[in-house]
Amino acid sequence: MSRVYIKTYGCQMNEYDSEVIAGLLQREGFTLTSEPGEADFVVVNTCYVREKVKNKVYSFLGELKKFKRKNPRLIIGVGGCLAQKEGGRIREKAPHVDIVWGAFNLHNLPEFLADFERKKIPLVKVEPDGQIPEGLPVVRKSKVSAYIPVMRGCNNFCSYCMVPYVRGRERSRPVNSILQEIKQAVEQGYKEVILLGQNVNSYGKDLPLSFDFADLLEKINEIKEVKRIRFTTSHPKDLSEKLILAMSRLDKVCEHLHLPLQAGSNKVLERMRRGYTREKYLELVSKVREVVPEISLTTDIIVGFPGETEEDFEQTLKMLELVRFDGAFTFAFSPLPGTRAAKLDGQIPEVIKKKRLRRLIELQLKITEERNLYWMGKEVEVLVEGPSEKNPDELQGRTRENKIVVFPAEKNLIGEFVRVRIKKTGCWALRGEIIKC
Fold this sequence. Notes:
This protein is of the alpha/beta class and 437 residues long. The chain is built from 13 helices and 19 strands. It has four domains: 3-125, Methylthiotransferase, N-terminal domain (Rossmann fold), CATH 3.40.50; 142-254, 2-Layer Sandwich (Transcription Regulator spoIIAA), CATH 3.30.750.210; 259-373, Transcription Regulator spoIIAA (2-Layer Sandwich), CATH 3.30.750; 376-434, CATH 2.40.50.140. It has helices at 12-27, 51-70, 81-86, 89-93, 109-119, 163-166, 175-187, 213-221, 241-249, 266-272, 278-291, 310-323, 350-372; strands spanning 3-8, 31-32, 41-46, 75-80, 99-101, 123-125, 145-149, 151-152, 171-172, 192-196, 228-232, 256-258, 296-303, 327-332, 379-387, 395-398, 404-407, 417-424, 430-434.
C-alpha cells in the first residue's frame, strides 16, 4: 500500500478538506503517514488568508525538494485556497510540484493522481467555480469532535479578504446531507459536532425553503446521540435574535460564541467593509449576554489596518475593555495582493503595527486571566480530548464554554465526559482535578 503525508495550512474548513482528501486516498489504497520522508505522495492543502501563510507554504514546498532527490518517484500535490488563486504559478515557483488542484475540485484528486501516474506529465486543474459533491469519504483527525461543514463560500467581500474569490459565493449544504453526515459521525462514537462555515449565520439564504441556521441547530439538537454542538464562524451583521434565542433554548448548543470584531473604530470598520458599527456590535453582545448569561465570547482583531490612527487603535483597546472577551485571535494587518485593502492609502509601517499588536495582546491576556478567575473552585463538565499539549502525562479537554482544562487522569478517559473541579486558573488553560463519583 502507498503512503500519503498531508500537510494542512489554514482554518478548520481546510482541516475538514484534508480529512476528505485522506478519505478519498484511503479508498484508493493509501495509508496515512506522519512523516513526509516516508511518503509516496505528499499533499499540501493550502490557505490564502495572509502573505505570511503563503510564504510558509512556499518554504515548505522548498523543503520537499530534498525528499524528492532521495525518492525521485515521490509525487507532490498542492491544493486548496492558495492553489485556487495562484494555479500554474505554483509550478513556476516550485517546478518539483507534480499536481495542482483548486478548492472546487478536491474530490477529483484520485483521478488527477491516476492521470499523472499514467502519463508522468505534471498537471494543473483549477476550476473557476464548482460544487463539491455530497457523500465524500472522511477520515477524521480528531477522535472526539467531528467537523461538519454546513456551507461553503462567502458573500461579504471584506476589503482585506480573498475568501469569496477562492472559496466562491455562499452555498448551503442540503439539510438532509448535513444530518446524514452527523448521524454517521455519532455512529462512529463522536459526541461533539463542530459546524463550519465562513459565515454560518448565513446558512439557508440560498435554499428554496425558508430554513435558517437556527432551524438547523434545532434539527441537530434532536439527534439523541449528539451531546454537544459548536459552530464557527459568526458574522456580527447576520447574528439574528432568533439564533441568539436558539442558543439559549437548545440544551446541546454550547455556551460559546466566536464573533469577530476586527476593529473598534467605525472609520476602520467601514474601510474594512464589515457592515456593522461598534455600537451595533456592543448591542449584540448585550443581547447575547442577557439571553445566555454564561456565554464565553471570543473574537478576531486586526491592528494596523490602512488609515488606522492612534485614536482608532485606542478605540479598539476600549472595545476590549468594554466587551471583555474570553479570548482573541489577534493579527497585524498584512496586505494581500488582489484585495481592496492592499491598494488603500495610509499603509501603516511594520514597526507601528508590531507595537500596537503587542499592546493589544498584553491587554487581552490580562482580561482573559481576569475572566478565567470566575471558574476558580467551580465544578465543570469536560469532554476529554487527549493528552495535554504541555505534559503528555496529563489530559486536557474543553468545557461547554470552550475553556481548556488540564488535569491528571488515565488515558482511557479520552473521548469521555468527566466532572472536574477547577483548582488553578491562568491565561492559557484552567487546571483541576476529577471529581470522583
